[in-house]
Amino acid sequence: MRKLLLAGMVLAAMTTPGFAQSYKFVIVPKAMNNPFFDFARDGCEKRAKELGNVECTYKGPVEHEPATQAQIIQDFVTQKVDGLAISVADVAAMTKSIEAATAAGIPVITFDSDAPSSKRISYIGTNNKEFGVALGKQLLKLRPDGGKYAMISGGPGAENLAERVNGVREALKGSKWTEVPGSPSFCNDDPALAVQQMTDLRTATPDLAAIIPVGGWPMFAPEGFKAFASKSKKEMDAGKFTIVAADTLKMQLELLNEGYANALIGQRPFEMGEKAMDTLLAIKKGQKVPEIIYTGLDVVTKDNVATMLK
């Protein structure tokens, strides 16, 4: 009788919050110097605190370096963490990393950038093809007269960015817009390089009518971007040069509000971080999760930017 009583006490203790199983989940961005991922980190940490039995660790390469990202993931596999959420910098490299983590019994999901043919369980983020289409449609709405345009992308091995580029092209197909040779240029998520590429594009094609960065990189260096845009401000105000950019971080909204861009199409990285924690926890509990979880888009122009800044 005494043994049964003790067993019951132990079982009861293990089901109380103090004895609830805890999990260490890791969110791995493409690059930690990209402020976009700061919001995913903040969402991850907020949701982990709310859940109580989850720890959110945020670590990735300082700069966009797929090889370094792969090494960081291998280190976490060695540590036997409870789950990984990865923004895929390079599909080929990350497919191998995801396979290694899965073989070690660690569930892997992707966020922001996917590796759809890998062994990842779920993808959380933007429908990147629709994102690119939205960028192209916004340019077409602002400038139906057309002209020459160029795109700036990040890393050539990122599937999400390739989908955005294809989406822009799809939206502008059959219109009066034509893409210049050498587009897109690849900045490898380097804000300063992205600003320089904008300058180079205008120099190479003096009658360039629009630039579409499919990520927010040039605007993540606000002073450099402002210096570039200031030289084209009169043309922008006259509708002869247009910038439609991805993402809606505060610095970008401020630049748009000041007239240094024409429109922004934004993602929801904070929500990506939150949902990453929920999804990994559900997987650890043996629950079925959706393979694809889209977090939506926001269209911001001069008409609603003040509201977005509040």
From TrEMBL:
Main localization of the protein described in the UniProt heading: periplasm
Keyword match Oxidoreductase: no
Leader sequence segment: 1-20
Name listed for the protein in its UniProt record: Sugar ABC transporter substrate-binding protein
Record InterPro entries: Bact_Solute-Bind_Prot2, Peripla_BP_I, SBP_2_dom
Subcellular location: Periplasm
One Pfam family from the record: Peripla_BP_4
GO molecular function, one term: carbohydrate binding
Domain of life: Bacteria
UniProt keyword terms in alphabetical order: Signal
Family that this chain belongs to: Belongs to the bacterial solute-binding protein 2 family.
